[in-house]
Design goal:
The chain has 652 residues and is α/β, with parallel strands linked by helices. Helix content is 48%, strand content 21%. Strands 6-7-8-3-9-10 form a 6-stranded mixed beta sheet, sandwiched between helices. A 6-stranded mixed β-barrel has the order 12-13-18-15-17-16. A 4-stranded antiparallel beta sheet has the order 2-1-4-5. The protein binds adenosine-5'-diphosphate (ADP) and magnesium ion.
Length: 652
């Protein structure tokens, strides 16, 4: 009994007030020895609670010295103060300060959670304590299902959870009826008998009479102190309290255990606010889901286009007229390729065939039916070149071409529209009033890579078409089929040189090989994918902002909970972790559901409307983005919670 457990020397507390300050504690000198039962009395506003917050390390003095078992409290860091709060002190407040979302047993366990006690052990101890305080049948009741007296007993059990050598009780009976008051005072007296140091704040003289020593307060100063009384009780003091720094550095809670606890608490609080959680989740789910679905659709469209282009043949060179601002024919088409060029190109080595094409819009009529469509005036080798054969009848021959035969081959769409009830073979169609005899109908081709109906077309020999329909000898394109694709670059160059010679030195045309077209189309589709992807990414960002918003609301709503956790021993880091984990749990959950949802949507679209291509890296990336979103957008709110001042948070 030679060293006081708590020693205050000239402790002052000032609050700024305008330019001046308000001094709430005016130089307190106080020694309290282990095992004492002290009552602090005084009128409301005299500074009792302020003193208790300083004693309990919830607040710091503005000046003066506070020693705990001979160690200067002002020199302790955040971790050490947190340790002191949970290992040495037990708080009992007038308004109980229980966490509303947690049941009685869980509330009692909180100080042990931060001390790193294993779950089963602390549950058992909490239940024992509650049973001892007569609440054995109220373990799973939430605070709002308990009476005031019962809640106060829960908070006393919480104060005892980690030992509670020093019980700090701030008007513990202030909100209770007389019967409950008596019970609580009996309990505190019993604890004092057992050797706990009890510091009781009250303005009720009858309550104060339970204590061995009464200190009276007025306007922030002590006006009466009975002094330490001799008792026979053996004080309860943990030896660890004698060296706080050593105790804290020697015993650290494993991060894994802390994380498991944080996830458990996060799930609990998310469950508590399930509707809000659902809405937040929805934001992330939509974000992640749209990233996955949009990119699957984009990739699918690209793969499809590339497959179609490739199916047209990768051994083709396409020659088109014009390089830019070239002379044009009367109808506006580029004018430079001529039928003579076709024959020359067909003679080149490594060339299988060269097929001219010249298209024109026409009105086609047969009997009572008519339609507007495209005529493609081309060569007899067209089916070979495009690997597209007639389904019925035949394609026109080279001979038809040479004798300017008025014959036509119809695409499926045209055939269906002009001859809905009969076979068109051998019948006549009027193309811009010129009669052509139908030789065949092509097989169904479907849409072109550019989305047009490939079957809405009529083929006629180039010679006849130019003479009777287009009235123009210029060609729309010449397609050259190459025998050996390994030599396609050489052949391309040869085609170019030959045509320059044909055109008397003018390079008034372009040669493209299919590989180049595939590249261009692929680039165009990539742009589409990037566009879709960025829209989706924006929605993920919006989802992230939603998480932040909800977390900020949640922090504001749970300010008091933060205060309670700090008072029962949570470090700043624990609070940061708790809110951060909550944000990450929501967004991770949203990520998982989002990926699954995105896959489901894309798969549905794939099954009914258009091809889709799933990419695992994109799913992983989208999921990682979601988790990262939680981390990034959850950080600011979590930091806000962690930085809350315990006293301010408690009084919110
Ligand atoms: P008691 O518990 O004895 O009723 P308190 O310790 O709660 O009194 O308050 C003492 C005085 O300090 C009161 O006048 C109160 O207004 C003032 N006070 C408490 N907290 C603050 C604060 N954060 N800022 C300014 N004044 C405060
Ligand atoms: Mg008070």
């Amino acid at each position: 009994m030679n060293q006081p457990i708590l020693r205050l020397r000239d402790v002052r507390k000032r609050y700024p007030q305008g330019d001046d300050y308000l001094e709430v504690l005016k130089g307190i000198n106080l020694d309290i020895y282990a095992g004492e039962f002290v009552a602090i009395m005084g009128a409301s506003g005299s500074g009792k609670s302020t003193l208790m917050h300083i004693l309990g390390c919830l607040d710091r003095a503005s000046s003066g010295s506070y020693e705990f078992a001979g160690q200067e409290v002002g020199k302790l860091n955040d971790d050490e103060l947190a340790w002191l709060r949970r290992e040495a002190f037990g708080f009992v407040f007038q308004s109980y300060h229980l966490i509303a979302a947690s049941n009685a047993s869980e509330n009692v366990e909180i100080p042990a959670v931060y001390a790193g006690q294993p779950a089963a052990e602390r549950k058992q101890r909490a239940e024992q304590l509650l049973a001892r305080l007569g609440l054995g049948d109220r373990l799973t009741h939430k605070p709002n299902q308990l009476s005031g007296g019962q809640q106060q007993r829960v908070s006393i059990a919480r104060a005892l959870m980690n030992g509670g050598s020093i019980i700090l009780a701030d008007e513990p009976t202030g909100a209770l009826d007389s019967h409950s008051s008596k019970e609580v005072m009996a309990l505190l007296t019993e604890l004092a008998e057992e050797g706990h140091t009890v510091i009781l704040i009250t303005h009720d003289a009858n309550v104060a009479a339970h204590a061995d020593r009464v200190i009276e307060f007025k306007d922030g100063a002590i006006i009466r102190d009975d002094g330490t009384q001799a008792t026979e009780r053996a004080p309860m003091v943990s030896p660890a309290l004698a060296n706080i720094k050593q105790a804290v550095s020697g015993k650290s809670v494993s991060p894994l255990v802390e994380n498991i606890e944080a996830v458990r608490m996060a799930l609990r609080s998310l469950q508590e606010n399930w509707f809000r959680t659902l809405l937040t989740l929805l934001g992330i789910v939509i974000g992640v889901g749209s990233v996955v679905a949009m990119l699957a659709i984009g990739e699918g469209a690209r793969d499809d286009v590339l497959a179609r282009i490739s199916s047209m043949g990768t051994n083709l060179l396409v020659v088109r007229p014009g390089t830019g601002f070239q002379r044009r024919s009367a109808d506006g088409s580029m004018a430079s390729l001529m039928p003579e060029d076709v024959a020359v190109l067909a003679q080149l080595p490594n060339v299988i065939t060269a097929v001219p094409e010249s298209t024109k819009g026409v009105t086609a009529r047969a009997g009572a039916f008519d339609t507007t469509t495209q005529v493609n005036a081309t060569g007899a080798d067209y089916p070979l070149l495009r690997d597209w054969q007639p389904q019925e009848g035949v394609f026109f021959s080279e001979e038809d071409s040479q004798r300017y035969a008025a014959v036509a081959v119809l695409g499926q769409t045209v055939a269906r529209e002009l001859f809905p009830n009969q076979s068109p073979i051998g019948e006549f169609v009027l193309l811009n009033s010129v009669p052509f005899q139908v030789l065949g109908v092509m097989s169904e081709q479907g849409a072109t890579p550019w989305g047009q109906d490939a079957d809405d077309i009529i083929f006629v020999p180039l010679t006849t078409g130019q003479l009777r329909l287009t009235g123009d000898r210029h060609l729309g394109s010449i397609t050259v089929a190459v025998a050996n694709t390994d030599l396609i670059d050489d052949t391309e160059e040869e085609v170019r040189q030959t045509l320059i010679r044909q055109h008397m030195g003018n390079e008034d045309f372009r040669v493209r090989n299919m590989a180049a077209i595939v590249e261009t189309a692929s680039a165009a589709q990539n742009t589409l994918t990037i566009l879709l992807g960025s829209i989706a990414a924006i929605s993920l960002l919006v989802g992230g902002i939603g998480v932040m918003n909800i977390m900020l609301v949640s922090v504001t709503e749970r300010t008091k909970e933060v205060g309670i956790r700090r008072a029962t021993g949570a470090r700043t880091r624990n609070i940061l972790q708790q809110f951060l984990v909550e944000a990450v749990v929501v967004s991770t959950l949203g990520g998982v559901v989002g990926v699954l949802g995105g896959v489901a949507v894309a798969a549905t679209i794939g099954a009914w409307f258009m091809p889709v291509t799933f990419s695992v890296p994109i799913m992983v990336l989208a999921f990682a983005c979601a988790a990262g979103t939680g981390l990034i957008f959850g950080f600011a709110p979590a930091l806000k919670a962690a930085r809350l001042d315990p006293v301010v948070a408690l009084s919110s």
